[in-house]
Design a protein that fits this description.
This protein is of the alpha/beta class. The chain has helices at residues 17-30, 45-49, 74-86, 91-96, 98-106, 110-122, 126-129, 144-160, 165-178, 193-210, 229-241, 262-291, 309-325, and strands spanning 6-11, 35-40, 61-64, 67-72, 136-143, 183-190, 216-222, 252-254, 258-260, 296-300. It has two domains: 6-223 and 301-325, 3-Layer(aba) Sandwich (Rossmann fold), CATH 3.40.50.300; 225-293, no CATH class. The strands form two sheets. Strands 3-4-2-5-1-6-7-10 form an eight-stranded mixed sheet, sandwiched between helices. A two-stranded antiparallel ribbon has the order 8-9. Strand 8 and strand 9 (258-260) form a beta hairpin. Helix 6 (110-122) packs across helix 8 (144-160), helix 6 crosses helix 9 (165-178) and helix 11 (229-241) runs antiparallel to helix 12 (262-291). It is elongated and about 80 Å long. The N and C termini lie close together (11 Å). 36% of the residues are buried.
Length: 326
């Protein structure tokens, strides 16, 4: 997965795509690959994680040795692209013109296409880019539906414009996206029915639009299954033996724990059962993916108040172990 020029990371919104993309970028850099993680939209989460807020859109920013990041603003990318075609027309004049506004509104997918052209440029070697190239570009893609539209945009525009610069650029991006030797695709999900269903829809969309398959699925924030069947029976018995209604009678004695109220014992047993049921549901969703023969990489839930850089490095290590063993 890390041996291609482009790795596309997408999935349902809110499942941790940016965290996983950043972790994979860290992992690739640790393995000696010159890597850049690309975010789409006016977002720069990765530089902020490294303590570098306020990075400019469209600028390649070095985060640490071997690792860079960049944020692509689709509106600005479209403006720069049209300015290139328009020659000496200034960006300010073009942005304020009714022609630009009309084109941006009347050409669905134009912003997505020029964003993909920017990403294609990053995958080129030093000679083509006139600056140092990258071994791997990790695209922190938008949510599933928008990502599929973005990935399909070169084929759409290639069908409309059969000659000229648009046709040429569309074909170059298609070769990057459709050739398994050049790119790979990874979905991020959580152990919920909606996120897993969206992952299945993603793989169908990739097959239909690009003739491609998912390389792997990362199931993020997976809760551990802590209890054996015997322990669960004991937890259930505790709930029966210590009903909350007896709390007014005063504390009871639990072996090895000293006096404790029935309400506390009942609440602890109920909480343990609830966590177990949630973890079991998540693992059942994991089984749905494995039945489709996906290579599933599980990332455990991180029990911290804030997902900081050390936590993301820990996720990178976990993914590294899983990738090495897969």
């Amino acid at each position: 997965m890390l041996e291609r020029k482009l790795l596309v990371v997408t999935g349902k919104g809110g499942v941790g795509k940016s965290t996983v993309a950043g972790a994979l970028g860290l992992l690739a850099a640790q393995r000696g690959l010159r890597t850049i993680v690309v975010e789409v939209g006016e977002q720069a989460r990765l530089p902020e994680l490294f303590g570098l807020p306020g990075c400019q859109t469209g600028v390649e920013t070095m985060l640490e040795e071997g690792l860079w990041s960049m944020s692509i603003d689709p509106d600005r990318a479209l403006l720069e692209w049209l300015q290139t075609l328009g020659g000496r027309v200034s960006g300010r004049l073009l942005a304020s013109s009714s022609t630009f506004q009309y084109f941006a509104a009347a050409a669905p997918g134009a912003k997505e296409l020029v964003s993909m052209v920017k990403i294609w440029e990053l995958t080129q070697d030093e000679r083509r880019r006139r600056r140092a190239g990258y071994d791997l570009v990790v695209l922190d893609g938008p949510a599933t539906g928008h990502a599929l539209g973005m990935l399909h945009s070169p084929r759409t525009f290639g069908a409309i414009a059969r000659v000229g610069p648009i046709a040429g650029q569309s074909q170059q991006v298609r070769e990057l996206l459709e050739n398994p030797a050049n790119s790979s695709y990874l979905a991020v999900a959580q152990g919920t029915e909606m996120a897993v269903t969206e992952t299945l829809e993603l793989t169908d969309g990739l097959q239909r639009n690009l003739g491609r398959e998912l390389q792997a699925v990362v199931v993020n924030a997976l809760l551990p299954q802590r209890f054996t069947a015997a322990e669960l029976r004991r937890i259930a018995q505790l709930s029966v033996e210590h009903p909350p209604a007896r709390a007014a009678a005063g504390p009871t004695s639990t072996p090895g724990a000293g006096p404790v109220s029935d309400a506390v014992v009942h609440s602890a047993a109920s909480a343990a059962r609830a966590v177990h049921d949630r973890a079991r549901f998540q693992h059942n969703q994991l089984a749905r993916l494995r039945r489709r023969n996906f290579d599933v990489l599980a990332v455990p839930f991180v029990f911290t108040a804030e997902l900081d850089l050390p936590a993301v490095r820990g996720i990178a290590e976990q993914l590294g172990r899983r990738l090495k063993g897969s």
